[in-house]
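quick q for whoever's on today - can somebody do inverse folding on this one?? i tried earlier but teh output was garbage lol. tokens:
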């Protein structure tokens, strides 16, 4: 049963500036979990009656009513001659966020809260120029630019949420005291599936997500595997993943939301094989919402998201143990997995958490 209880939250709405990625459009198929999270957060907040303005990359879904951030104007020949010029993508992001923060500093009284859901340092560094408090969701381990901004920022002006207790602990030495608000998924869109099919692996096809380890484990388990997700590193896919395909292991491409939800709901098990300390793992929440138990590596936030009724975790990097976890997870109750998602990682639970933070910030 869901822990969502609207009656415990005062019926107050907020005017929220939601800052997203300036680099990746918020549209399906989503480039990554951060974009999917931003879309879900904006939609759910609006359903609760909040006035949400999303600032995102050009090309985002028109249905999300995104205010597109500025693109980098042509760089002069003189500037290009600077031998210390950083990569153009870096300049483009810097320009987008600088323009946005300067614009927000002039829109005084327009917003109650600025929610920084990006991975950029400028919303932290320029928080003092805004008249609204800035809440930053920490989606990753500490990064150099953001860590610097956190250490130099005014603790009275900056507030933080973290997507897991693991991530909150990682940031604590920088001075960022974060309230844990786990990412949530729409349990109506990620609906309960019948299961019984070939195990699934989903996410960005990159080394740190462990698709190679998942394939090897599935072969040892004798179950086969279906993989789905974007391939930002084509060289890695061609050299390391493609040679392992065939004989029951298939790559289905970068699927849209509905197709991916059907695939995950049809699977007996979702294999989650991070080769780094995953800050959260949105694919875990998506699978559990579909009633699909998890077989994964116990790294990062996975041990706090997956309980014994919803998944089986193996020692990180142990492919043989992951194969055993795939077999064991296939015996778990799909109903228990779904209930765990509703109680701990649904969109409703997530929005409850953010509403409490918004109201506390707006009252400061």
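ok took a stab at it. sequence:
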């Amino acid at each position: 049963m869901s822990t969502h209880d609207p009656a415990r939250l005062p019926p107050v709405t907020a005017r929220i500036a939601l800052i997203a990625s300036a680099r990746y459009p918020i549209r399906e198929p989503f480039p990554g979990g951060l974009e999917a999270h931003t879309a879900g957060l904006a939609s759910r907040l609006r359903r609760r009656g909040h006035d949400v303005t999303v600032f995102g990359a050009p090309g985002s879904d028109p249905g999300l009513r995104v205010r597109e951030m500025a693109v980098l104007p042509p760089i002069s020949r003189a500037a290009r001659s600077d031998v210390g010029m950083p990569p153009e993508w870096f300049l483009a992001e810097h320009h987008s966020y600088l323009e946005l923060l300067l614009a927000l500093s002039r829109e005084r009284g327009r917003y109650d809260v600025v929610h920084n859901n990006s991975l950029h340092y400028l919303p932290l560094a320029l928080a003092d120029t805004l008249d609204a408090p800035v809440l930053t969701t920490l989606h990753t381990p500490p990064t150099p630019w953001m860590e610097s901004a956190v250490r130099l920022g005014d603790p009275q002006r900056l507030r933080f949420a973290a997507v897991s207790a693991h991530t909150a602990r990682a940031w604590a030495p920088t001075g960022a005291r974060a309230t844990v608000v786990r990412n949530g998924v729409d349990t109506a869109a990620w609906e309960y599936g019948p299961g019984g099919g070939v195990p699934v692996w989903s996410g960005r096809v990159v080394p740190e997500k462990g698709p190679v380890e998942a394939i090897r484990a599935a072969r040892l388990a004798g179950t086969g595997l279906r993989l789905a997700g974007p391939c930002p590193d084509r060289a890695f896919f061609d050299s390391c993943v493609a040679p392992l395909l065939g004989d029951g292991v298939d790559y289905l491409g970068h699927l849209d939301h509905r197709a991916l939800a059907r695939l995950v709901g049809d699977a007996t098990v979702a294999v989650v094989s991070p080769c780094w300390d995953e800050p959260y793992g949105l694919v875990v929440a998506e699978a559990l919402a579909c009633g699909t138990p998890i077989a994964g590596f116990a790294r990062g936030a996975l041990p706090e998201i997956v309980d014994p009724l919803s998944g089986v975790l193996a020692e990180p990097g142990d492919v043989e143990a992951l194969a055993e976890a795939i077999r064991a997870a296939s015996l778990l109750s799909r109903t228990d997995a779904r209930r765990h998602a509703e109680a701990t990682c649904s969109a409703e639970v997530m929005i409850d958490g953010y509403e409490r933070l918004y109201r506390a910030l707006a009252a400061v």
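fwiw The domain at 15-184+347-363 is CATH 3.40.50.2000 (Rossmann fold). also The chain is about 40% helix and 15% strand. so keep that in mind when u check it
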